[in-house]
Amino acid sequence: MSSTARRARVRAPELSGSGGWINTEGPGPTLIGLRGRIVLLDFWTSACVNCHHVLEELRDIEERHHDVLTVIGVHSPKFEHETEHETVVCAVRRHELRHPVLDDPELSTWKQYAVRAWPTLVVVDPEGYIVAQLSGEGHAGEIEALVRELVIEHEGKGTLRRHVREYDHSEPPRTDLRFPSAVLRLPSGALLVADTGHHSLVELSDDGRTVLRRIGTGRRGLLDGGPRHAMFAEPHGLALLPPEVAAHVRYDIVVADTVNHALRGVSLATGSIRTVAGTGRQWRRGADDFGAAREIDLSSPWDVAWFGGRIVIAMAGVHQLWEFDPVGESVAVLAGTTDEGMEDGSVDTADFAQPSALAVSPDRHTLWIVDAESSALRRLVDGRIDTVIGRGLFDFGLRDGPAAQALLQHPLGVDVLPDESVVIADTYNGALRRYDPATELVTTLLSNLAEPTAAAVVADLDDDVYVAVVESAAHRVRRTRLPPG
């Protein structure tokens, strides 16, 4: 990651993208039409967790300077699925963006601005000149200072135009679920769903259709308390604690509360929620990464699983696995170097690329991991990380066959079937895939799904296996019988 600030005066190229505009009416804004305002261009892609961090960093700046600053998202895809306009529309709604977003599937604006990394921020002054280009995340302080400086400079020159403009961001009809991301079968047989877009948890009947209760207000925030008062921010993964551990700590479920950078504990009996790890702040390099759980910053925990006598955390934001001891109330790094990549080896030397889902084998000896950005299936066995499916950060597709040649596309879910084979929610392929460790073959079980983000085994009746498939883009959980055999 690098940054360049205060370049020589270069006129900002006009914006263009064949996918059109989202959150605007008509042809969309132009830089010429925005003269007199400060413009912040955010080059992002929907799959990138670092881009998600920047979206959160910009919320306060955008609100604080709404009379002088216009934020424009430029969606610049990495994956094939991200070139589809509906994918971008879903991403804009999923992250509750209110500013205009240009869909640029052919990367035309990306190329005009010579962007090289996701995310990248470009600041354009009121006269239409580029004054800063910053790559990576964590630049909120620099952006804030630059905006204040530009306001003073251009008010003095008479080139600043203050006014407030609201853009169209119409919402789809309300549904029981909104961009759900994870599902967990409870001891009662009911299904607990991370209702990510509604910032809450929902308990459904075993068929996935009837809402039994909702936990959380549905408003974005970080607040402990009862089920009608507590708040989450885009919760994702869910894990059930062993009964003896749950009895000791007095909560049953651990929730990866992703945008709050926290783990939350939920009591099934009362629906009450309390923060059990994290401070609400995002972990940065140089910060402590072990110690008392409530005093250590986390970074976009995406999934959680009980493995090896502790909760393992897929810490997507820093490309690592962490561990949380709910009894000792401590956290520590388990595996990964924080470098984004796909390097196998010991837990101390292995690299991950946005680990996003975890599942444990029936013998409790293997932890299965999906690495979303490398489109890979990995496993942790006896202190070593190995790759089963996947080749690298830019190798993706839809291909069955021997695991060494098979391809996935940004998978976000994983579970283990009764026969010890692995089922993968292959999100950007819209498919449910299966890897058989015995034959080392990959097959497709289901296709034409709407961005499946999780699949959990919910019943094993004789020769029939049923899974609950979370179709995030369709706002539903579907109970599905897998094909025989």
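(the above was protein one; protein two follows)
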Amino acid sequence: MDKVLIANRGEIALRIIRTCHEMGLKTVAVFSTADRDSLHVRFADEAVCIGPPPSRESYLRIDRIMAAAEVTGADAIHPGYGFLAENADFSAICHDHGIKFIGPPAGTIQMMGNKTLAKETMRKAGVPVVPGSDGVVEDAKEGRRVAAEIGYPVIVKARSGGGGRGMRIVNSEKEFKSQFDTARNEAEAAFGDGGVYIEKFVSSPRHVEIQLLGDGRGAVKHYGERECSIQRRHQKLVEESPSPIVNDDLRRRMGEAAVRGAQDVQYEGAGTIEFLVDADLNFYFMEMNTRIQVEHPVTEEVADCDLVQFQILIAMGETLSDKPAVMDGHAIECRINAENPFKNFSPSPGRIETFHTPGGHGVRVDTHVYAGYVIPSYYDSMIAKLIVRAKSRDLAINKMVRALDEFIIEGVETTIPFHRQLMLDERFRAGDFDTKFLETFKLKASD
């Protein structure tokens, strides 16, 4: 492997470019016309424009990305996260053209991307799963029968996709049909696949995920857990490692279960198995992400490792050592979005006039923006990730408050005031929260 094309944009593209350069690898950036001035374009060895701003005409165009790889002589492609990162066809096309896809093979992506098949695969591997339907539910009549068997409340979920679309909670038989039909229609519109399944709804759950690496030869290691329960509309806003709710016994059991599941599919590359954890510390498989995650830096900080480097080394054919990962300290990540938290987190694209990042021991900022950068309105609103590490959770929270105070972004609205208020909230500081926490969190009018 000599030259890596990064089939992505923004901070993750720049993040991958940095590791490639440290490994002595040449890089190729692809970009839409809206991203011409992004830092990932500036710092790559080569850059190829692949189309106009809309993703469907640029970052989702496999043909244009493959053409860029061909004209630049790239022999590997890293998909980052989002866009084509979990597209089985993209992985297969790379393979057919003799270009290494830095991630799992197409079959694994397809299996784990089908949530009903993934659930059955994990169940057979001995991973705890939430009680629910055996595969896709064909109609509301069958769905009512399943719901009655497992008991309300239940949740109707899209077979494909993610991000909370095609997902509806049903509290009683009376509302079942309308919620079932809404979920199916949403799934069809968002993913082109109206298939849905039904699960028991776990009340007041925590969202805890296990970071994995597999070498494709049966060796799998886990790098502890990440707490991802601070969410808004199923979108994560804050992540931390380790989780304040996970004790040594639960960590061992969750880690062993995740490793079994990944070994069962001969997993290759970086991946994450996500669990729901209830108040009694029972855990249930939710889904597997077959890519690097937005929140991977918190694991890197507590494990003192470079997960992207591991991805690339595995793609080069290296095997994993059997030495267990050593986790130390506590890390927290805040996603800094160009949104106005005081106006229902409405998007705030535009020109950044001032951009001053915090510093100091244990502070990391992953970003692709700078003063004068114009935030496009076409993509996700995240413009930076602020990560801190300290010896304990309390110290990490204090460090995050200090870092947020130093983070100055002018010209657009951001979520920095929200994060600062969250870090000072007594319930958050006590670790007393679940995935519904933000429904009751009261944001003050000004900070």
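Reviewer note on protein two: The radius of gyration is 21 Å.
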